[in-house]
Each structure stands twice: as C-alpha cells, then as structure tokens.
C-alpha cells in the first residue's frame, strides 16, 4: 500500500498536494474509494480512503490510526564523509531504508569532492528528496533529515548523541561489536564514516575530543559507500531491530 507524508497535523480529513497528488492522479491513476497510508507531520500514521482526486490535490478521509511503529528504538545519526559521483545518493537511500534517523554530510580533509555555498545547498535539497522517496518505499514513520554539509568540529560541537563512534581503519584495539555491547542502554548513536581518502589524524583527534570512540569494522578495508551501511546494520542487529 502506498504511503504519503503530509506536512500538516493529523485530522480526520486531509489533503495530499504537490508532487504526491500529481503522482496519485497521473501515474498511479488511483480513484476514490482506494486506500492509502498517510503520515502527518505530528507523527500520526493512519489508513485513509481517497475521496476525491485531481491533478493538483487528493482528498482523503482517515479511517483508523496505525499504532505499530516502523522506527528503531535507538536513534542513529550517520555522519558520512562526502564521496564522489552517485555514491552519496546510494548511501542516503539505503541508510534511510535501514532506519537511520539523520544524516550529516561531512566535508573532510581527504574528500575528493567539495561542495560550498549554493552548490552544497542544492545537493542537500536533492539528498532530502532521495530520503523522502526511500522513506515512502520502506514504510518509515518519519522522513530522516539530511543536515547541511558540515566539518567534523561543527558536528562534534552540536551532536547530542549519547554514544559516538568513529570507524577508523587503523584501529586495532576494539571493534564495533565490543563498543556496542558496552552501550546497549543508549538511546542515540552517532556513526562517523570517512570519505574515499580516509580520516585524517587531525579529524580523528577532533572526534575523540568530542567523545567519539574509534572502532574497527573488521580485518578487511571497506569502501566509503560500504562502511556506513555495514556499521548501521551492525547497530540495528545488536539492538534487536532486524527482526527475529
């Protein structure tokens, strides 16, 4: 069943407009009487019935609130070093499908790509649209936020996660599993992943100063677009968020 996010508080009768309304009318060709799921901006998920469709708006009547949550109990922020090409699009899409709460694109010393000013803002707008599409497809109850591009010192100054982890390829004393099992009562986790060129010593020191613990992701070196998704999956597994 199709799910749509409506940027308004929950009400018995609601309107879907903009791109979603055009998609319902011209692509899905849905008719009055068909059912959809809606998520209001105050976090209510409901089963709804279409009562009227037009190219610019779809009206729905909410039938029942869906109490079951699709969100992980632990809130995960993925701070991902900027990567080139379409890799960042892929990371954002898959991280949202897995259950990330927030993604912070990191401008790092060894990043191949650089986004400043207007270009960075346009990229973030594009990534937010990718996050919204992935949230709809994976039946999320929220659209994860894509933050503005930031440096690691700003990230550490503003992040209030109770557990902070930085994946570092030279770390050989403690692995991700060990750190997670020592923090199973935490309610929020920051995962920092470097770009293709890796994390510099200065950035590692800034992360440590901000409370981040360096961890190994195993004996094999993972690509930048693999490391974050691997760490995210491991966190969800340790917190019993992958079913079973």
Characteristics of this structure?
2 domains; 244 residues; 5-stranded mixed β-sheet; elongated; 25% strand; alpha/beta; 6-stranded parallel β-sheet; Ribosomal Protein L25, Chain P; Alpha/beta knot
Structure description:
By secondary structure, the protein is of the alpha/beta class. The protein folds into 2 domains: 3-65, Hypothetical PUA domain-like, domain 1 (Ribosomal Protein L25, Chain P, Beta Barrel), CATH 2.40.240; 75-238, Alpha/beta knot (3-Layer(aba) Sandwich), CATH 3.40.1280.10. It has helices spanning 18-27, 87-98, 117-137, 152-158, 176-181, 201-209, 224-238, and strands at residues 3-6, 13-17, 35-40, 45-53, 57-65, 75-81, 102-106, 145-146, 163-167, 188-193, 213-215. It has a 6-stranded parallel sheet, sandwiched between helices. A 5-stranded mixed sheet has the order 1-3-4-5-2. Helix 2 runs parallel beside helix 3 (117-137) and helix 2 packs parallel to helix 7. The longest helix is centred in the middle third of the chain and has 21 residues, at 117-137. The radius of gyration is 20 Å and the shape is elongated. The protein starts with a strand and ends in a 6-residue tail after the last helix. The model has no long low-confidence stretch (mean pLDDT 93).
């Amino acid at each position: 069943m199709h799910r749509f996010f409506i940027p308004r508080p929950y009400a018995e009768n609601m309107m879907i407009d903009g791109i979603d309304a055009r998609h319902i009318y011209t692509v899905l060709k849905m008719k009055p009487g068909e059912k959809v799921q809606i998520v209001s901006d105050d976090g209510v998920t409901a089963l709804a019935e279409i009562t009227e469709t037009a190219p610019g708006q779809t009206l729905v009547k909410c039938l029942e609130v869906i109490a079951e949550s699709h969100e992980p109990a632990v809130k995960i922020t993925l701070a991902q070093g900027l990567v080139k090409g379409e890799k960042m699009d892929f990371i954002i899409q898959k991280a949202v499908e897995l259950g990330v709460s927030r993604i912070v694109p990191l401008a790092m010393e060894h990043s191949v790509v650089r986004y400043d000013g207007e270009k960075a803002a346009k990229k973030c707008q594009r990534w937010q649209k990718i996050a919204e599409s992935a949230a709809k497809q994976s039946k999320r109850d929220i659209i994860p936020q894509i933050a503005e591009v930031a440096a690691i010192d700003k990230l550490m100054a503003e992040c209030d996660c109770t557990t902070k982890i930085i994946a570092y390829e030279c770390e050989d004393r403690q692995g991700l599993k060990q750190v997670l099992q020592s923090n199973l009562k935490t309610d929020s986790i920051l995962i920092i992943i470097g770009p293709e060129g890796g994390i510099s010593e200065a950035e590692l020191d800034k992360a440590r100063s901000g409370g981040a613990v360096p961890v190994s992701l195993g004996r094999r070196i993972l690509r930048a677009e693999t490391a974050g998704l691997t760490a995210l999956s491991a966190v969800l597994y340790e917190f019993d968020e992958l079913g079973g």
